[in-house]
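Appendix B, example 12.
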Amino acid sequence: MGDLAKARARGIYSTALTKLLLDNGFDITQPSITTRERFNLKDIEGSPDLDIYDRWDLQGVRALGKAGAVADFVSTLQSCLDDVVIRKWPFTFGGNHKGGTKRSASETDAVLLDIGTAVDVEFPALSKEALDGIRRSVVSTIDGHHFHKACGGKISSSLDMAERLLQATSSHEEVMRLFRQATDAEYPDEGSVVEIDHVKLDGRVLQLGKALIEDFDHTSSLMRLSRIFETKGIYDGLAIRRAPGDRAVTTAQLGEWHLVTRYFSREGRYKGAYINLNTPIELYPHGIRYVDLEVDVCAWPDGKVKRLDEDKLEKAVAEGVIGEKLVTLVEDKLQDVVSEIRHLEKRD
């Protein structure tokens, strides 16, 4: 056992990740009191070979430490989580982390002064769901636990209360009803103005502008959002001019692997459609979020349909950013999207 790599995990993903680490040949060092009790752990001496903690936005974790330990952790994640995104992370000791916060010498063990590797890990919707299942094997867990924790604020604190109640009762359905009753008002609804977080595989978060939720069918989780453009430009992929007053109408279904944006002139003339393939869409209090998977489909009013940038997804696999499982899922979704867009042209 002494030869096992030592890992330390903190934050909202710590229970699920501790379970994964223990099941995949790691020792846990310096566990929190809660983690020690949940896993019946004994104190293991020594500094961690792998240090894991939450990203500032709670959409994943940072992991840094000895190269071998980090590589094993990454391999474990990619084997268990279909849509996990792994990015190289330029770590500066005592300075700013990319997209993160400062970390001082007093907060980092001496062994990490000689850092072998550092990675930024994003947990999109499927990864959060899988981590929920792993956590549930250890402790009572509400459906959507990690998503709700990532929301922060009242939703996160209400989740803590709900899970304490869940431990004292067998009625998961009743606890979920009470939890939704306490939190539903925190999310946007029809008439709300929201942000669209378009997250690139390299970690950049592009804000696509404020959008009005014109319609929200809660039964199907289908939203229609609209935006008005104020400046000139070119619609990417379509190579069509954008004029002030143009309107973009986006159809987004929560949990779906793509969203469809149709462009109209000020007078209502249809200009074309752009279909973005992405990780399943999530709705947060501030708006919708997904990770862009690079592959897109364009459709023109004359019926022409074209796939774009399929090679970028393969490049991401080669660079270790995503796994082969995700490519297979996207390829299947792409076939469905191409068929769907042909029907879309007949609507309106």
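The domain at 193-344 is CATH 2.40.380.10 (FomD barrel-like fold). The two ends are 65 Å apart (CA to CA).
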